[in-house]
What we know:
Layout: H1 2-9, H2 18-41, H3 49-61, H4 68-101, H5 113-128, H6 133-156, H7 164-186, H8 193-196, H9 198-201, H10 209-228, H11 230-236, H12 240-245, H13 250-272, H14 278-290, H15 294-319, H16 327-343
Helix pairs in contact: 2-4, 2-15, 3-4, 4-10, 4-13, 4-14, 4-15, 5-6, 5-7, 5-13, 6-7, 6-13, 10-13, 11-15, 14-15, 15-16
InterPro entries: ABC_BtuC-like, ABC_transptr_permease_BtuC
Protein name: Iron chelate uptake ABC transporter family permease subunit
Transmembrane segments: 22-42, 112-130, 137-155, 167-188, 209-233, 253-286, 298-319, 325-343
Amino acid sequence: MTTAVSTARRAPTxxxxxxxxxxxxxxxxxxxxxxxALSLAFGSRPxxxxxxxxxxxxxxxxxxxxxxxxIAVQSRIPRTxxxxxxxxxxxxxxxxxQAITRNPLADPGILGVNTGAALAVVSGIAxxxxxxxxxxxxxxxxxxxxxxxxxxxxxxxxxxGTTPIKLALAGAATTAALSSLISAILLPRQNVMDEFxxxxxxxxxxxxxxxxxxxxxxxxxxxxxxxxxxxxxNALALGDDLAVGLGVHVGRIRLIAAIAGVALCAxxxxxxxxxxxxxxxxxHIVRMVSGPDQRWLLPLSAVGGAILLVLADTIGRVIGFPSxxxxxxxxxxxxxxxxxxxxxxxxxKGL
Length: 351
């Protein structure tokens, strides 16, 4: 009996073996290193690999560079670090939301969670003069939590209860309404429009070590909780009744995973604004190549999310030269076709 229970609590049956998953993780880690190198090398002034190495070496030593190449590299380090942690957090958040709702369309952007967080922060700045990273984080978490509850409630109304399409429609409508409110708050304040512009789209260009230090504990705790929930989420994939029979507290694990997902999204929004589609795309791609086992899906999604956002930020800087295209625009451009493909599937049902 014990063997049967432990077997059932493992991931759903998949042909993807452990060796292949390890190989995927190693390839992902290598791709992440390459994307980081590209982020440091390309921008308003491309630099050579040697200049990238010199800039990183001097940064680690605490030395002030004098060469223009090393200066450019050091100026790109904070935004690259933010892109890594923000992309990983958003992908983890999306994977958690998809797992606890068994909804293939669940994503912080699709469900309006990051837009709700952005609206709360913009309101705090505009009406209450809040300017600290801690204040941003608190407001973002409150806005994200309220929006998540509201969207889930709206998506549960009517016959059939909560379905993927109803949640997606409720999230899309909520996102549109909240985005309009953000615009209504920002447009009359032209003198601060440039200051707040990234709250409408999402961008990692304003990265600073101070703000990242404030949100880092939330991101670390959220990521740790997500990984610890992996086995229980595997049980949820078998159905609530079977999960209860296996000793999983379904309501409790959903609540814990939901709080972790909302916290990850809110922390990213507090420092980078609302960046969409990362949490939608990455878990789907990872699931196709590594299978549905959450013990692998979650860490691989974190790596994939980091790669995606770092490359999106780099692409935005290159194609927008001499200015830049916000990372949120690039991820939306890449993610919209993915959303269409998912929505057009003939069998859009629970994961």
